[in-house]
Structures are given as C-alpha cells and as structure tokens.
User: What shape does this take?
Amino acid sequence: MVEKTERETPSTATGYTTLAAGADFRHELTIKRSRFITVLRRVEDEAGARALVAELRKEFYDARHHCTAFVLGPDQSVQRSNDDGEPSGTAGIPMLEALTKHRTADGSALSDVSAVVVRYFGGILLGAGGLVRAYSESVSAALDAAPLVQRQRLGLFTVSLPHAAAGRLENELRSAGYTMTGNGYDAVLTHMGLAMPDEPAAIEAARHRLASLTAGGATLEASGTGWVDLT
Assistant: This one.
C-alpha cells in the first residue's frame, strides 16, 4: 500500500509500524470472568477510528463498555482515548499507552491504529488497578499477535518498458531488494511502480541496473515521495 504525501507537511519520521492492510484483528482475554474483546483496525484519520467504535457498539450492543484509544500520524501526533464509563483513567489511557509504547525489534513505533476493547462484566469487581492492567494487557496481547508491517518514506518512481520484458524485469528488481508498488498498462508499455530511497546515489544505481537489464529499453521517472508498506 502506498500513500502519496507530497502535498502534506513533511513529517520528521522516516519510518513507523502499523497493522497490515486488510481485515480487523481480534483478540480476546478472560480475566476474573470478564471478557475483554480487543479489536484493532488500521485507520488513516479520526473519522476512521470513530467509525470502528460505532460499528462495534452495534455488533456488541449488549456489552457494558466499549473503550477506545487510537494513535495517528508518522510522529504519533494525534492521540485520543475514552474510558466509556469505566472509572476515569482505568481503560482509555492504559490502552493508549499500550499503543504508543509498543515497539518492534528494530525500535520502530506504532501508529495509524485504532483499538477498541469491548468488556462484558463477569460479576467480579477488578478494582482500579485491576482494570488498568486488564485493559493494558488486552491491547498489548492483541498487538503481539497481530500482523504488523513497516512503513517507510521513500521516493516513488515509474519504470516504463515494453510488455514482453516487464515480467522478467519485475522479478529481477524484487530479487535485488526493490519495493514494487503496482503496475499500470497502456497499449504499448507496462508502467511499473518502484519505491526506493530518494537519494542521488540510489537513483543513479537504479538507472544503471535498468540499463543493464533492458539494454536501455526502460525509462525511470520520479513521481514524488510517499509512505510505503515494506514487504
């Protein structure tokens, strides 16, 4: 997934972690008979985060609490949480901290993620400390099991070449470690999307590689910068 950002105010971040694109991820814990159902969704804005809790209020209409937290932006610049009736500070804030403090093995921070924890009360009071631990653990356990991807700000390029040569070249570029972002076609040419560091040395190396692989039959054109899911 590529999100072009050349018209946005540049972020100081060069990379971050988010959920893999696709369906919501769900995880459930039972703590002293209370069910804590965590739902994680990749979101692009506050509207998307709020849409998730609205959907879950309908699905789990009989649950006592639908507590929420979300973090947005490469720099985690937007952070929101809500206790939804739990004692103040015992649900939303622990959930938000679980999101903002999550780190991958390389130290990358998490963002563009909304978390909702649906709680069915089991009849045993957990106390303030118990609630904090339960909501934090619910989100942390879900994140540990969820499919995550790295995002990186890269230069976006288009490689244009005859259809007959496209398949072989795409395989060669993938094998060389380039990130491919999708193909377009016209009557004569295949236009392959390519992402790589937007640096003169990297661009020059790519031009030389293309010339060598296609005997000069491919062209490379820059098309801005953007956030790219690394695969």
